[in-house]
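Quick illustration for those who missed Monday's session on complexes.
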Amino acid sequence: MLKMKPNAPKSLHSRIAPHVRDIPPSGIREFFDIVSTRDDIISLGVGEPDFATPWHIREAAITALEQGVTSYTSNYGMLSLRREIAKYVARRTGVDYNPENEVLITVGVSEAMDLAVRALVSPGDEVIYHEPSYVSYGPLVTFAHGKPVVVETKKEDEFRLTRKALEKKVSKRTRLLLLNFPTNPTGAVLRREDVEDIAAFVIEHDLIVITDEIYSELSYDAEHFSIVSVPGMRERTIYLHGFSKAWAMTGFRMGFACAPPELTEAMMKIHQYTMLCAPILSQVASIEALKKPEEDIAEMHASYEQRRNVMHSAFVEMGVECFRPGGAFYMFPYIGNFGLTSKEFAERLIEEESVAAVPGTGFGPCGEGFLRCCYATALDEIEEAMTRFARFIGRL
Ligand code: PLP
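Prediction with pyridoxal-5'-phosphate bound:
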């Protein structure tokens, strides 16, 4: 038996700061720890491209490593990369950022989101975001001692965020609005008029927007339109983007934030004292990634679009209600009418048919009744998973 050292604290659990202790671990991770113990499973689980990073990008990192490029960089990131990012963002949004002091290179959008929230939230400030949402937003606000305020988006509205829904949640303490379109986990996109309405709301209530546009290249039915492109929004927006999804570069851990100089500097201060800088090899690879992005992304985009169509048709054919997502690589079918909770449904689907999907509740309580199925998986695996899914619901 393990004996407690006499001088060890009685309960380490009680020593953890309550605002950290009380946050449950990510529902996705919990689920995938189960999945990783079996190798017979078709996974529609982790939100990760099934492509390897385009070769010329990998090669740039290899060459840099061979040449001994192994140092720190400026805290802001390499200026040559910031310049390329500013050009790319200007092409995508029509908004010019000064690479000297308005672009910050981060370790993924994950870090950029954390910096943006920590730089702007004081204790008790309210931060509105839409749910079902990416897993990190609520916890990041809580870590910053802010108060998360959730606006539910609904399948009836194609999971779009409306000004009407926002008006119901705004208060005198609201400081920030977090946006993520195309959305993980629903694949929802906004129309230009939705974006303009939300921008008018933000200006009227004097808020700042943090917009996570990591999936913006992966829009299938219409061109992505960013809130930062609306006149008057550049001054009050932190635009976040990164290389993980569209370039299939998750393991490089590269993201960036673009914002007015005061906000960029505030984020940089936290970054400087916590992360120092993003890894130099990943920065070099990202410079290469911006040499011919449209070309690199086109093939993957076409493939995801095809897989989206196949998965969506399969759900429709088997009579499962499913919103047709306009972006990202997730489908969010409604399975709430089969008499099981999302968790029970997902557990039995793994158990009985060896297909893994994430329970919708991993993305907030309003995800109950849904499953997240990632279609960044080989086409034949998607087809087989859909056959098994149909067989499974046939037995319920
Ligand atoms: N934002 C959203 C909406 C995501 O879905 C993800 C990853 O799944 C991230 C951010 C994290 O991205 P990164 O790899 O750049 O940290």
